[in-house]
Amino acid sequence: MRRADARSNRDRVVAAAREAFAAAGLEVPMREVARRAGVGVATLYRHFPTRTELVATVLAERVADCGVQMRRALDDPDPWRALAGVVRVFAERQIHDRALNEALLGPGAVGAAFQEERREHAQALNVLVVRARAAGVLRGGVDADDVRAGLLAIASLRRLPAATSARVIGRVADLVLAGIRA
Amino acid sequence: MRRADARSNRDRVVAAAREAFAAAGLEVPMREVARRAGVGVATLYRHFPTRTELVATVLAERVADCGVQMRRALDDPDPWRALAGVVRVFAERQIHDRALNEALLGPGAVGAAFQEERREHAQALNVLVVRARAAGVLRGGVDADDVRAGLLAIASLRRLPAATSARVIGRVADLVLAGIRA
DNA sequence: ATGGAAACGGAGCAGGCGTTCCGCTGTGGG
DNA sequence: CCCACAGCGGAACGCCTGCTCCGTTTCCAT
Description:
The structure is a homodimer. By secondary structure, the first copy, chain A, is an all-alpha fold. The first copy, chain A, folds into 2 domains: 1-49, Homeodomain-like (Arc Repressor Mutant, subunit A); 59-180, Tetracycline Repressor, domain 2, CATH 1.10.357.10. In chain A, 79% of the residues lie in helices and 0% in strands. The first copy, chain A, contains 10 helices and no strands. The mean pLDDT of chain A is 89. The interface between A and B is medium-sized, with 26 and 26 residues. Chain B binds a DNA duplex through residues 1-6, 9, 29-31, 34, 39-43, 45-46, 49-51.
């Protein structure tokens, strides 16, 4: 089995897809990913039999990254800083990675692959909110679903024209934080 | 000139497009709009030479509606109620009309046709914010761009699956209001 | 009633997408 | 070193889109 070149091609495809998805969203044509990777479409399809699988592979990395951030937040002894940090990091990522957004907002197929991770994140967020509430830093009546809604709002903004989205995302993140704080 | 049937067909096309766009977004195929209107595609194209023109025609109605709401808010003597009302009405509309969202967020071509109305709305919003700030009901540092960012966030949420978007939009609207209030 | 133009419908065109097929290339075990 | 075959590139297929062409229908002035 001649793995050397095949494996290197696979890596190049994943790298090209990662960049393309981050920059232009998940709807980049397969031809374009292949072109960026410097391979033919057939090569791409040999490693990823369907578009969905390529997308899932690239997103898996990103989702894993988010898990790391979450665990870091859980280690923070300051409840407000932990929660605010999650919101800010999330916003920051949305600014730089368009794919992440569509993983959350995309209809069924794409997001479905990460149900487990998603539940894990939700669990962690619940913990952060409970701690923050116990510390009295949250406005009355605010619950984890409010924070989730805020995060979704931030994520959705990624679809704005790139020129303005960064600033708007920053403002909304501040708005959300002001809206949940006591 | 045989206007009777032509005119009635035009009306049916606009009505069909309005419904289809509100329900399924601006990306509904022309064939589908024609089918819903009970006419052939050629008829549709005779009245609207290009897809963009059909979209613009339908959105013009919606944008005009928003202008009415804005003027109503300007007449409200209570500055907070006026501003909060705008946010709430806007959120309510996003829930029921998917097209409105894409008019705001869609890239260039679509939104460009309404620059004038948009500026008018922006102007009105500025007035509302200035009044609210003068009345001391806004948190320090909040400006019109923050409110605009909040509205954009609400609008962006329309792309979530229909099942959850209504509730999430409601929560975010509350979050935004909490975030700007003193 | 009747002619002719305005208006119609649906087949057809060009272009873009995801995916597949197939003849060639170049790698690495013997 | 050499040649079998894993692996390759790009042309091709089927489907969907916006849009156009043209033979046929239908209204309305006469």
